[in-house]
Design a protein that fits this description.
- With 333 residues, this protein is of the alpha+beta class.
- It has helices at 6-12, 22-43, 66-79, 146-149, 218-229, 246-256, 275-288, 319-332; strands at residues 53-57, 63-65, 85-90, 97-98, 108-116, 127-135, 158-164, 168-173, 178-184, 189-194, 205-207, 239-240, 259-262, 273-274, 292-294, 311-312, 314-317.
- The strands form four sheets. An eight-stranded mixed sheet has the order 4-3-5-6-7-8-9-10, with helices on both faces. It has a five-stranded mixed sheet with strand order 12-11-13-17-15, sandwiched between helices.
- The chain is globular, with a radius of gyration of 19 Å.
Length: 333
């Protein structure tokens, strides 16, 4: 395979993606540059005293890790200067981040989780940056309102994640399939390594934190019991795998099939995962790769968030596995 960079790949497919303008390509260039910068710091985390927490709590009520704060600052600094954005929303920030008049502004809105799974850095487990790209509604001018950002996921024009693991990988969709690019440290470029990624129709792995069993309602317990007892396509029982970092668990699901589940429970009746910066971008990727994403009853991409940090249950992965979840919830209603 020829060494095709992300930019070259976008230019090759630009005719099939009407929104893949120079502004959009520039946005992705700066997003990738941010990812490279975050990856460099993660690779040296144990040497630079950037492991552990800051002692602060973010808007989600979660302990802020040092690398959370660093990744968030990198993303905001780089992206507000890229010239393609009018606003951003970060998992780490309570309010909408509007691009000020001191910077050139564009037509796109970026929503991101700067470092998903950051608590795993201390134990050297994969973490990642998740992002969603929206276009500002046509005809809107002036200061961006929160309502303009609260778009259903089906209106995304791009989404993806950067996985920081044994290798650093960018997985991206612009609505024309899902493609994976691996960072070649020798040339400093993300090169196409996984073209046209597809989730198997049915998998053999289910991923859920069963330690929360006591907090689930009966329909959710029935869903998980179904995966205890069903068979994979080769006639074997499903295997349980759970990393505890959404990006890592989803990446495995994308490559090998199966299902990742984070249901609602007594403590979090609306679910835990953020709709805009986690569920929507991964749902877009899943559907573009032939899979499905649901809250158990409704398609994730059709749900309209009512606030920046709206949450949702999430069942995502192979089409048949997600359909099984929806069927069980319907039967238990």
């Amino acid at each position: 395979m020829a060494d095709i960079t992300v930019t070259e790949h976008l230019l090759l497919h630009q005719k099939r993606s009407p929104h893949a303008t120079g502004q959009f390509t520039g946005l992705l260039y700066d997003l990738i540059l941010s990812g490279k910068s975050i990856a460099r710091r993660i690779n040296k985390a144990g040497l630079l005293d950037i492991l552990g927490g800051t002692g602060e709590v973010n808007v989600q009520g979660e302990d802020v890790q040092k690398m959370d704060s660093i990744a968030n600052r990198i993303m905001i600094y780089r992206m507000e200067r890229c010239g393609a954005l009018c606003a951003m929303s970060s998992e780490e920030e309570a309010e909408l981040i509007r691009v000020g008049p001191e910077f050139p502004r564009g037509d796109y809105i970026l929503i991101f989780d700067p470092l998903d799974g950051s608590s795993n850095i201390d134990i050297n487990v994969d973490v990642g940056t998740i992002f969603s790209i929206l276009r500002r509604p046509a005809g809107n001018t002036g200061e961006v309102t929160v309502e303009e950002v609260l778009q259903p996921g089906i209106q995304q024009v791009g989404a993806g994640y950067i996985l920081y693991g044994p290798s650093t990988m960018l997985v991206l969709t612009t609505g024309q399939g899902v493609h994976g690019f691996t960072l070649d440290p020798g040339v400093g470029e993300f090169l196409l390594s996984h073209p046209d990624m597809q989730i198997p129709e049915q998998g053999y792995i289910y991923s859920v934190n069963e330690g929360y069993w006591r907090y689930w309602d009966q329909p959710t317990r029935e869903v998980v019991k179904w995966f205890h007892n069903c068979e994979s396509p080769d006639g074997k029982p499903y295997s349980a795998r759970y990393v505890g970092a959404l990006v890592a668990d989803f990446h495995r699901t994308l490559l090998r099939g199966g299902i990742y589940m984070y249901p609602a429970d007594q403590r979090k009746p609306d679910g835990k995962l953020r709709m805009l910066c986690e569920a929507n971008p991964l749902a877009f990727l899943a559907e573009q790769a032939g899979g499905r994403a649901s809250d158990g009853r409704h398609r994730i991409l059709e749900k309209k968030p009512d606030r920046l940090h709206a949450r949702t249950p999430l069942f995502i992965g192979s089409r048949k596995d997600v359909e099984a979840v929806e069927r069980i919830y319907a039967e238990q209603s």
